[in-house]
Structure formats: C-alpha cells, structure tokens
Description:
This protein is 23% helix and 24% strand. By secondary structure, it is of the alpha/beta class. Strands 10, 11, 12, 13, 15, 17, 18 and 21 form an eight-stranded mixed sheet that branches. Helix 7 links the parallel strand 11 and strand 12. It is globular.
Amino acid sequence: MPNVAPHYCPLPGSERSARGQRLRPADPAERISVSVHVRRPADAPPLPDQEYWAAVPPNRRAFLSRDKLAQQNAASQVDLDLIIAFARDCGLTIDESQSSAKRRYVVLSASVALMNAAFGVDLGIYIFGSQIYRGREGPIHVPRNLVQVVEGIFGFDTRSLVDTASSPPATSPVAPERLPGAILSPDQVAALYKFPKAEAGMGGQCIALLSFADPDETKVGTGGFLPTDIEAYFNTYQGIGPGFPTPTVSPVVVKGLGNRPNRAAGIDDLEITGDIQLAGTAAPGVGIGVYFTTWDEDGWIRAIKRIIYPDPGDPEPSIISISIGAPEFALDTKITWSRAAVELISGAFREAAQAGITVLAASGDGGSNCGVAAIGSDPPRAHVLYPASDPWVTACGGTIIRNLAGSVFAEATWPHTGGGVSDIFPLPTWQVGANIPLSANSFPRKGRGVPDIAGYANGYCIVVDGTRLGPFAGTSGVVPLYAGLIARINATLGHNVGYLNPTLYYLGVTSAGMFSNICDGASNASGGAPGYTSIPGWNACTGWGSINGIELMRFL
C-alpha cells in the first residue's frame, strides 16, 4: 500500500487497475522519469467545440498557425513554477531538455523510492502473459494546491497500449484470412476511389506517422525502417516503376532510441515501413514525419503533442495518420487507457483541429471484440479502439474490392474490421442523424459510433529488408491511403481542410454520390462477442463506406 502524506489528494482520472500478477516491488534505486502535464492557462480563449465545427462550412473556417496556437495554449509560468517548487521540495530532478511549456508538461526524474514518496504511489513489477511491466494500482496523489493545476502524470506505468501477448496489434499487418478479392497497389486504389490529381510538390503537405517501442527498450515494438527499403519500393514496386517520387522522410525521436530497424526478422518493421510506402504512394511527393516514441501512455501523449507543437527543425504535419490503437478503458481488458490519458489526448486532438490538422486512425483488425479475450465467466464483450473512437478523429474501417473490371468494381465488408459503439464518448451532435445503434453489449448504450469511413483493406505488398513481401491486409492500410487523399485535397485547394467529421456526416445524409455504401449484410462479430452488421446508410462495420475523392474535394 502506498504511503500518502496527509496534505495530499487523489489526482482525478489517474486511477489504474493492475492486470496480471504483481511479482515484486519496483527496484527502489531504479531511476525513472515522469511527465507532469498542466492545464491550459485560465485566460486562454475557449477552444472551438464540436458544434462550432459542425456549424461553420469548411471554406469559412479560420485556423491558427502553430505559433499562435502555442502562444494561446502554453502553460502559464505560475503553474510551471508550482510544479518546479514541488519537485525541488521532494528532491526530484527537473529535466529541462525534455520539458516543454508550449506542450504543457514538465519532465521529472528520480529514484523509484523518491517517486513513491512524492506521488503517493507503490510501484511494482507485474506480469501478464508474456509482458512484464512496471505498474501501479489506485490513483496518483499530489498536494492539494496542485489538484486543479495538474491534468495528468504519466510514465509510472509502462504497460503496452500497442501490442500484448493475447491481443493482436491494433492494426496487425497480417490478417488471419482474406476473402476472395483483388490484391491492389495503393495507387490503383487511389484511382478507383477517384482521388484528385496529385499536385507537383504536394504544396508542402506532410503526413505524421507514429512508431512505438517498448519503454525498457529491450524490444523493437512496431520497429523502424530502412531508407534503402523506401527507395527500393518507389523504384521497383509494381505499378510505380523508376521515376516515381520517393518521399522525404524525417525521423523525430520523441522518447526512446528512435529508428531501430529489426533486420533479423523484419516483422517489427512491417507497420511503419508499410505506412511510409503507402502514404508516399497515395500522395506522391508528400513529406512524411515519423515520430518514434514508447508504447505506454506517456509515449503516446508526448508524441501527439510533439506533432502539434513541434520543436525547431521538426516537420509541421497537416495530417496525422495513426495505424495503431488499443481498446478503450474497460474493466475486462488488460489493455486499458486511464481516463486522464484519454482526456489529454482528446484535448490535444481538439487543439489540432484549431490548427487545421486532420487526424485519422484505424478501427482495428480484431473485429467487434478488438481481440480482447473474455475474463473468467464473463461473456465476451464488444469493444472499440482508442484513439479511433475519439470524436476528434476520423476512424477508418476496412473493405474488400471485388469483381474489378477497369474502373468498375464491387465492394464488400472486410470481415475483421473493427467497429462499434464507444464506452467512453457520448453520441456527437453530428452523428445524431446517422442511426447509430445501441452498443451490442448486455448493457447497451448510445455512444460515438465507429468507424466513420472505410477503404480497401484486402492487402498491399511492401518492401522490407530489401525483399518484396505480402500482401498484408488490415485497416492499417486504409489510414495512410486516406491521409494521402487529404494531402492531395489540401495541396490542390491551397489550404488545409482540417477536422472532417461533421462534414462527412453532413455529406453522408445529403450527398448520394459521395460514398460507396457497403451494405452486404456481413458482420464483424468476433471472439464470441456480439457484432454489428453492414446495413444501408451508416453502419458500425464500414461507416459511410469508401470516399469519392473528387466529389469530396469539390464540396470542400
């Protein structure tokens, strides 16, 4: 049990429940670091809400520059001084090189023993399946004068929010099976979906990709990439050939050791290597920023904030493409987000909307249960992934392209597509007219429906470790494809279109030619959990369906 000082209070939203067995206390002499995130300044103007973006047409929106956004939202010096004084009183070291006022966090380091005392926690080493991680149970505690200042503290818990022993990666590059259908290249799919012509130079557009690693750096996580693989793909891959522009890829190390390709097996390089190759094909000439971080909550939050509030010399992405996720907070899953982490990330996406940044995320490859096994005698439950379930994110499900004849094709539901109803977020106003179903679980609720759109997930071939491999299926291929579409639209229009969800739902209701609706009656039920069916209109397998790129650009 933690030893909590009498003048301390629990930090709201910081509660964690351990998964698995506690093996032992964490080494009291081990030195660790945490990031303490503070509130927006009290005098900052309110961020535009969902209703604002639903009411203002895309061509009338005014975005803030990143500099202006940072000036508006940076932490106040008063709040930072409170954290600094607390750290010094507790004997914690302030890591000024990692701290950031514009990203509103201070990084503190100390021994486990000092951290336990400073924050009223009892850190331990836990095992669940094959994963061994440092964790804690219950809330973090802080002095009363910091409760209203601090939004979250991250870094104590190193459990994976990307990959675990009994649950597949959020968007596994290898699907369990593929139904009969065409195996295409991303440029072929872009042509079938009528993407607008790619502008030369792409107008300076940049797509941000995330790559994750184990916080203790003994594993590669989703790996890295070899520049030679990127060059080989764009010079030799089918349908592209010599002369196709190789994108400029800018690695950004947020946390951890950065780009570490796994040359021995290549399997861990598949995700980020594939994302680079698919995004660069979907938007020829686009810039790509790859953000290397750790797979825990601290790594997620710091990466998202780094994209929105870059350091000097960093790229400035206009689109964030997220091919990874983990099931939302739920008592029956070992992969859980804390409430504080979800609120912080969602708030960062809301700030991204004000900067004209479009955020897309994969709905997952585990079907309706997201690969989560039932616990004990409890029946299997339906889940959705976060961050795909965030209302500030455009969630992308999966389809299969069949009966291809020239530019004519049929589309069906990819059977492993994630989708469903959020357990965290209420129904957004822009989804009210979309006939979002009740959750399929035994305690049904009406919440944010996932996904919003869908696209080809039946498999792409990529180049990894100098070898052409695949095809690899999954919704992870849908996200960089549509990120490329948004980059093309932004470049053609000469400005960013930004947050898309209210617009997509308006078009889903009013424009018959905007989407290819997938209503084949297929289900994404998986693992014994109840599933959802592809019905006419919006559905919890494929959303509104695939996008007609030209028509979307014309409307925007």
